[in-house]
């Protein structure tokens, strides 16, 4: 069952994207505008620690912020958040989870009491219906997609909901192509149709949920035809999805950034969760909700407390008993308020409330929306320390650069995937040059700032984490190896829990076992950056199979598949603007402009354009995107900007 993969440029000559080489020595800069010079570890660490101390002592703990690495291990993330809370005394710690699935965590927590995806990968193979909503898993989650394909082979039906007819949609029985930013009307129309057809699971709703009546009133105006008008999806296709989802014995609703990267991402997530509550497709084997996480350990980073509102084990900072437990355990005082998230931290750089950042394995100079503004803000910092495996654009702005090991092959530890499975990673090769392990570097800095932590190895960190996180208590390294990974929650060293969450909702009296599931009352709210005569095209941004995020890690290998950036247009728009394939055009938004060659994609509808974020050194797509963000989760609206394209002047021919 092979399908066509739309890899733009796959027949072109290779163009060389920027190549990154591994960092092998620490670098320091003597003046803000000066050049980097190589430094000894001792000098670089002293400079890094002195800068943090000076900012903390002059402006207070909250002038410091930590960006933690979603590619590094759980152990590293545990140590990074401990450094932030114990050494620097603030809860300002976050990671790239903010730019992708923070709305999923917020929405799932509000509705169900836990931010984790509810099912396991294996359940996708035995379910009856798979809905991929705003997710191009064929490109972005190829391992998960193998499970999807097995599910299809076993007889599952698949629906895809994406404005673009993606490579994922090519495998679906039905593709629904809504206008960007219209998922709430679409989901509400599905919900209304289920209710009006008598297909809602009344027994489940009554026993296990709250808020149904308000929900039914909220979706009532969204008739199939009202939704068709706003979303552009034919009424019949919406009806078909509603009936397929409600009548399936078991169903998996999977979503990713097409849902979350909006200024109302958390509301979008709630709209999808509502459908599972309406039909009882959660809390049972084979039925569940799966936000597919983007980075190898972005789930684990949050679980380890590298987020501003949770201690390790997703325990709430605001709960006094929990705070006391950690204060006693770490012998410290924890501020009784949430820290700044990544988005807040960038705003606090603008106002100079944030003065020092320790950035470990993140490249926000290129990954933040409205990148020019992000770079300006990073430049305002008194002290920026970047710890990475490559000299990124963010590292180029730093005062001190610390060369780290690559978590996935040069260190020991664990990572946690989207199905909450904690797995071991093992050191297989030695790091280049003088590069050192992330954990060791953080502990050295803690030592210079007066905190002598005696972690002999990654397992010692893990055992400390286990002792404070009930969800992880039962996962010793020995058991993790024995079971080839274990899903959380795992509170006992004797048992393995079921592969899915929220089984309580199917008990006779769910409220005795935990919170009831809450319908979310959310309204349609179109994208902030409106299209008009001046900016007539809707730009959505995302990924291709052959490259990774800001291109730092995928830029260094030669691949005939990876051709650089394009602005992808529908055949109709290419004709309307009189541009040809490969022609370089100017792409402008209300924030900035770039020049990129054209690629024509028949999977795009007129009015919709697509670019990736993979080649910012050649084409800085985030110069175009809008920084409008979700007030609950802080995630930016990467998926909806307004642009125009302009033909470039033809160069004068020299005689
Ligand atoms: N090859 C590769 N794999 C990756 C990555 C990579 O860079 N390259 N990055 C990783 C990371 S960090 C993440 S978070 C994941 C992301 O994984 P995905 O979320 O699957 O990837 P995206 O391409 O960003 O967005 C998914 C889809 O959302 C659609 N979309 C846009 N706007 C809307 C909308 O309004 N509604 C709906 N329903 N859909 C919309 C887009 O057309 C796109 O096809 O991928 C991970 N995996
Ligand atoms: N336009 C647009 N922009 C987007 C998105 C979009 O869809 N559209 N998506 C957003 C999303 S979902 C995400 S997750 C972000 C990603 O944004 P970032 O996380 O800022 O980007 P990456 O390129 O993944 O950067 C990862 C860095 O980690 C380093 N690294 C890797 N392993 C290790 C390690 O073990 N230790 C250390 N110390 N460093 C390591 C790499 O060298 C690299 O510099 O981008 C966001 N930006
Ligand atoms: Mo992501």
UniProtKB/TrEMBL annotation:
Coiled coil: none
Source organism superkingdom: Bacteria
Listed CDD domains: MopB_CT_Fdh-Nap-like
Residues in the signal sequence: none
GO terms for MF: iron-sulfur cluster binding; metal ion binding; molybdopterin cofactor binding; NADH dehydrogenase activity
Domain Molybdopterin oxidoreductase: 22-446
A Gene Ontology term for the protein's cellular component: membrane
The keyword Flavoprotein belongs to this UniProt entry's keyword annotation: no
GO biological process, one term: respiratory electron transport chain
Record-linked InterPro entries: Asp_de-COase-like_dom_sf, MoPterin_dinucl-bd_dom, Mopterin_OxRdtase, Prok_molybdopt-oxidoreductase
Sequence ranges assigned to domain Molybdopterin dinucleotide-binding in this UniProt record: 537-640
Keyword Magnesium annotated: no
Region ranges (Disordered): 1-20
The entry's keywords: Iron, Iron-sulfur, Metal-binding
Protein name per Swiss-Prot or TrEMBL: Molybdopterin-dependent oxidoreductase
Record organism: Streptomyces daliensis
């Amino acid at each position: 069952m092979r399908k066509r993969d739309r890899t733009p440029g796959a027949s072109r000559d290779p163009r060389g994207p920027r190549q990154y080489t591994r960092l092998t020595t620490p670098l320091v800069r003597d003046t803000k505008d000066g050049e980097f010079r190589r430094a000894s570890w001792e000098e670089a660490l002293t400079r890094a620690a002195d800068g943090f101390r000076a900012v903390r002592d002059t402006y207070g703990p909250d002038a410091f912020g930590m960006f933690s690495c979603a590619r590094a291990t759980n152990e590293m993330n545990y140590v990074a958040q401990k450094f932030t809370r114990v050494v620097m005394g603030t809860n300002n710690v976050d990671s790239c989870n903010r730019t992708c699935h923070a709305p999923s965590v917020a929405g799932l927590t509000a509705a169900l009491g836990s931010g984790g995806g509810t099912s396991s990968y294996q359940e996708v193979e035995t379910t009856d219906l798979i809905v991929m909503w705003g997710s191009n898993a064929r490109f972005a989650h190829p391992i998960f997609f193998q499970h999807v394909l097995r599910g299809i082979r076993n007889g599952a039906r698949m629906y895809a909901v994406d404005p673009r007819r993606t490579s994922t949609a090519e495998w679906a029985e039905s593709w629904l192509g809504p206008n960007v930013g219209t998922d709430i009307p679409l989901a509400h129309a599905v919900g209304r149709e289920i209710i009006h057809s008598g297909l809602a699971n009344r027994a489940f709703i009554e026993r296990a949920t709250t808020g149904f009546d308000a929900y039914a009133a909220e979706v009532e105006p969204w008739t199939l035809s009202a939704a068709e008008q706003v979303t552009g999806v034919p009424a019949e296709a919406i009806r078909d999805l509603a009936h397929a989802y409600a009548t399936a014995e078991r169903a998996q609703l999977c979503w990713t950034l097409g849902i979350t990267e909006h200024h109302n991402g958390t509301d979008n997530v709630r709209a999808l969760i509502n459908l599972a509550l309406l039909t009882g497709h959660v809390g049972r084997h084979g039925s569940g909700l799966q936000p597919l996480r983007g980075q190898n350990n972005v789930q684990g980073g949050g679980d380890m407390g590298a987020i501003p509102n949770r201690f390790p084990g997703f325990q709430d900072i605001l709960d006094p008993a929990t705070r006391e437990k950690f204060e006693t355990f770490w012998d410290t005082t924890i501020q009784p308020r949430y820290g700044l998230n990544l988005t807040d931290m960038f705003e606090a750089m603008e106002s100079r409330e944030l003065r020092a950042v320790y950035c470990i394995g993140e490249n926000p100079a290129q990954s933040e929306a409205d990148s020019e503004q992000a770079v300006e803000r990073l430049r305002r910092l008194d002290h920026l320390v970047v710890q990475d495996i490559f000299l990124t654009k963010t590292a180029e702005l730093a005062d001190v650069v610390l060369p780290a090991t690559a978590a996935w092959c040069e260190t020991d530890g664990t990572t946690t995937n989207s199905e909450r499975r904690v797995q071991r990673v093992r050191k297989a090769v030695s790091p280049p040059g003088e590069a050192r392990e992330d954990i060791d570097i953080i502990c050295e800095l803690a030592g210079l700032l007066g905190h002598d932590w005696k972690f002999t190895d990654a397992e010692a960190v893990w055992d400390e984490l286990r002792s404070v996180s009930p969800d992880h208590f039962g996962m010793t390294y020995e058991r993790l190896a024995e079971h080839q990974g274990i899903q959380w929650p795992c509170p006992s060293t004797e048992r393995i829990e079921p592969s899915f969450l929220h089984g309580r909702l199917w008990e006779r009296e769910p409220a005795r076992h935990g919170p009831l599931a809450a319908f979310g009352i959310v309204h349609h709210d179109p994208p902030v950056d409106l299209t008009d005569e001046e900016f007539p095209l809707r730009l959505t941004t995302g990924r291709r199979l052959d490259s990774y995020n800001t291109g730092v890690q995928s830029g260094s290998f030669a691949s005939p598949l990876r051709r650089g950036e394009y602005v992808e247009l529908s055949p109709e728009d290419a004709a309307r603007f009189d541009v040809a394939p490969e022609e370089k055009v100017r792409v402008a938004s209300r924030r900035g402009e770039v020049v990129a060659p054209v690629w024509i994609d028949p999977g795009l509808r007129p009015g919709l354009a697509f670019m990736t974020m993979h080649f910012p050194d050649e084409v800085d797509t985030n110069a175009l995107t809008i920084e409008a963000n979700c007030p609950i989760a802080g995630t930016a609206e990467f998926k909806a900007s307004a642009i125009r394209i302009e033909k470039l002047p033809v160069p004068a021919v020299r005689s």
